[in-house]
From TrEMBL:
This is GH3 auxin-responsive promoter. It comes from the Bacteria. GO terms for cellular component: cytoplasm. Residues 299-373 form the GH3 middle domain. One of its GO terms (molecular function) is acid-amino acid ligase activity. Residues 390-494 form the GH3 C-terminal domain.
Length: 506
């Protein structure tokens, strides 16, 4: 196997050098938009919005913005995507073979997003670019001789009445792996097809000693539970006792920092954390440089990006897009500023607001961090709490109390007097009487808008602590248990009350 590691690493080095001469960002994005419009100009969407005429324009991007409105999911689905099950050539040529059921965190029901063959190819292309970026890291050859464990959702896809196959995007990707992936992909398609989460993890834990895992990919919360299950099953002190070559974790789906301490506790040697922005809407960005969690935007892989400032120019006080927001291109954004991401893609998404807020960390190359969801913006009484600010306060609270708090949920609810308070639920093994007071002070010191709200309409905060076991039981009861599931950090009042009812059960 050693010769394979040498050959793979050498191949990555060569590919990285060939890939190094990339287009300037604006030119790359204009090229992507032109290719997307050209491919879709004869679809119903393309004809309705005049793609043929847009392509003749001297200012392609401005014409595109003028002729095509920004869509959220409900608008895109109602007007266009709902027709793609019955008719061809709606928003993309032909009919998609798959629909991704979003495992996202907002909305009352799952989103159904079309997945085209070109889209699957684009995600593989971004994955290849990410692998080539490993050239920048000082990984030993042993990494390239080992196997990759991907903790996906179930690859056992449903088939609907029209013949489409449906599932979460990670399960769709696994089901489309070519046969030669079996050489290094674990747990393998047979285990990945097990629908029941606990049974799938038990099967992984059972076979774990047979594998030589060098890298793991998945959502931190579920990967951590899986690793803890393996350690418990085989009575290990740490995960490296069974997988000594484990060196990389490709994280995604949620911010990693609240899990870092728990990951370090089950590893004998440090592992490299790579961040990925892999959503149902696309493989949008990935870590390409060591010593940073910033992610390189995939500018040349079938996506065209636009950016709406996440301030009064683009959104209202609830984080919703304004009717006529300011829209910027890749050449107009600024380092350190937050933007709502707008995406056009080869899945037939056009000026589609994903619901994510990103911040640029650099422009050459364009690298971003996800700072939250537009719906995770808690501002019912003017507190203006972003997900990033809440994450920071929770990390500081955990550090002050020498504990870990991986997950949390918060909601603005009315108390018995009819006044608004912030109700927090923290997932931790430590409960403290002063959590509420400490958290309140941390948020006040970090956010002047929160401090003002606390002196006026926001009358207090309440904190309840639940164990990891209670949390996973709650997810199971609400059908939110699985390798790609993300729980909303900001809950509506009704959802929070159902969680509080669950907590209060004897």
């Amino acid at each position: 196997m050693a010769i394979i590691g040498k050959l793979v690493k050498a191949g990555i080095d060569i590919s990285a050098k060939l890939q190094s001469s990339e287009d300037e960002p604006l030119h790359a994005q204009e090229t992507q938009l032109r290719e997307l419009l050209t491919q879709a100009k004869n679809t119903a969407f393309g004809k309705y919005h005049g793609f043929e005429e847009i392509l003749k324009s001297e200012d392609l991007i401005s014409s595109y913005r003028k002729e095509v409105p920004i869509f959220n999911y409900e608008q895109m689905h109602a007007k266009w995507w709902s027709r793609q099950e019955r008719f061809e050539d709606i928003t993309w040529p032909g009919k998609p073979d798959f629909f991704a059921r979003s495992s996202g965190t907002t909305g009352k029901s799952s989103k159904r997003i079309p997945i085209t063959n070109e889209f699957i190819a684009s995600m593989r292309s971004v994955g290849t670019s990410m692998i080539n970026s490993l050239h920048e890291f000082d990984f030993p050859e042993s990494l390239f001789e080992s196997e990759v464990l991907m903790l996906s959702s179930s690859a056992n896809l449903d088939k609907n009445e029209q013949g489409f196959r449906e599932g979460e995007i990670s399960g769709i990707n696994v089901s489309n792996f070519p046969g030669w992936y079996d050489m290094f992909y674990r747990p393998g398609k047979e285990i990945a097809a097990i629908s029941d989460w606990d049974k799938r993890v038990d099967a992984i834990a059972e076979q774990a000693p047979e594998w030589n895992i060098g890298a793991i990919a998945g959502i931190p919360s579920w990967v951590l539970l899986m690793l803890q299950r393996i350690i418990e099953r085989h009575q290990l002190n740490n995960i490296h006792e069974i997988w000594p070559n484990l060196q990389v974790f490709a994280s995604g789906g949620v911010a990693f920092e609240t899990y870092r301490e728990d990951f370090e506790a089950i590893c004998m040697t440090p592992i490299t954390i790579l961040d990925t922005y892999l959503a149902s809407e696309g493989f949008i960005a990935y870590s390409s440089k060591p010593n940073t969690m910033a992610m390189k935007l995939a500018l040349s892989h079938g996506y065209f990006f636009e950016f709406v400032p996440f301030d009064e120019r683009g959104v209202n006080e609830f984080g919703d897009l304004r009717n006529d927001p300011l829209v910027l291109g890749i050449d107009e954004v600024e380092v350190g500023k937050e933007y709502v991401l707008i995406l056009s893609s080869c899945a037939g998404a056009w000026r589609y607001a994903i619901g994510d807020v990103i911040r640029f960390e650099s422009l050459n190359p364009p690298q971003i961090k996800i700072t939250g969801r537009t719906k995770f913006f808690l501002n019912v009484v003017g507190s203006q709490l972003s997900e990033e600010k809440m994450d920071k306060a929770i990390l500081e609270l955990a550090e002050q109390n020498q504990t870990t708090i991986n997950e949390y949920m918060v909601s603005a609810i009315k108390n018995e007097k009819g006044d608004y308070i912030h109700q927090w639920v923290l997932v931790s093994e430590l409960e403290s009487d002063d959590f509420a007071e400490k958290l309140d002070e941390l948020l006040k010191s970090a956010n002047k808008n929160y401090a003002v709200a606390r002196s006026k309409a926001l009358k207090g905060i309440s904190v309840k602590v639940i164990s990891k076991e209670q949390y996973t039981t709650f997810l199971g009861e609400t059908n939110k248990k699985g390798g790609q599931t993300k729980t909303p950090k900001v809950m509506k009042e009704e959802k929070m009350k159902s969680l509080l009812d669950f907590i209060s059960r004897p």
